[in-house]
Amino acid sequence: MFRSLTLLLAISTLLFSGCAVGSPFMDDTMPTFPLPEPDYTNKRIRDLRPYDDALAAFSAERTRELDALFLAATIPHIQALFASDDLTSVELVTYYVDRIRRYDIDKLNAVMELNPAALDLAAAADAARAAGEVTGPMHGIPVLLKDNIATGDGMHATAGAYALKDWQPERDAFLVQQLRDAGVIILGKANLSEWANYMDPSMPNGFSVLGGQTRHPYGPFDPLGSSSGSAVAAAANLATVTVGSETQGSIISPAKVNSVVGLKTSHGLVSGDYVIPLVDWMDVAGPIGRNVTDVAILLAAMTGVDGAGETDPALAASQATDFTQYASLEAT
Hints:
Elements: H1 6-16, H2 52-56, H3 60-69, H4 75-83, H5 89-108, E1 111-114, H6 118-130, E2 142-146, H7 174-181, E3 185-190, H8 194-197, E4 207-208, E5 212-213, H9 228-235, E6 241-246, H10 252-257, E7 261-262, E8 284-289, H11 292-302, H12 313-316
Helix pairs in contact: 5-6
């Protein structure tokens, strides 16, 4: 479906984006970071209204506690806090939205859109946990998805392009179904280099018309791409873990320069169903996180065969693997 429309939509984006194709990104000078955003009017507004009450009740003292706690926390550590009633998924979602409000909106620009239902999903995860119905290590964990991955919950899937600004997919991508089955809370969508960095050779890494210019969280550096927002969001702790996609370098390059862990998966291990492609026979979705343990846990939740195409038997045999068993120097 997507493959036949990609070129047409890319051309229409140039025509209708409202962003001048020239300045400031089309000259031959070396860029100075952080890059400014061009003068344009089509950046998507990040809507925090569904979180107003929760943010108003979120104290500065608790913010400081969680800021310190999550500098080195892993998913198993977060699950231990859930189990001991020292943390809830509702509070965790609120904490991340507060960080997005403080550090991301019109600053890092890593988050394209927030899920207005995230607090309700978190409350449901908390209720299930209280009833003893924990679905696994990702239960109640907030995740950001690169904005070329479709969700059927009213959020958009745009690849950052004006031509797709109003598209709200009618269903989840298969990998999103897998994440929901694992108990994940879809927190929202991450910014990206528009059309997976294939918009124009002079477009900067991390820029999309709808998301703005993603900026490096550690200083005046290139965030690289195309999974720029996913990597920056992980580095800035705007979600526990994130999902990116890669044709060649689009996960591992931004992960490297933003000091996080990113994994380019083997083609077929994670379904490409309803992920807007650049080169569909090469593209893969993969996990990004602040440590190897979290990436291994997220990878296990993402894997799955959707039945839409042929899958290498060796990859099919890897479904439901606990990849954390390999996250040590002693593992073979």
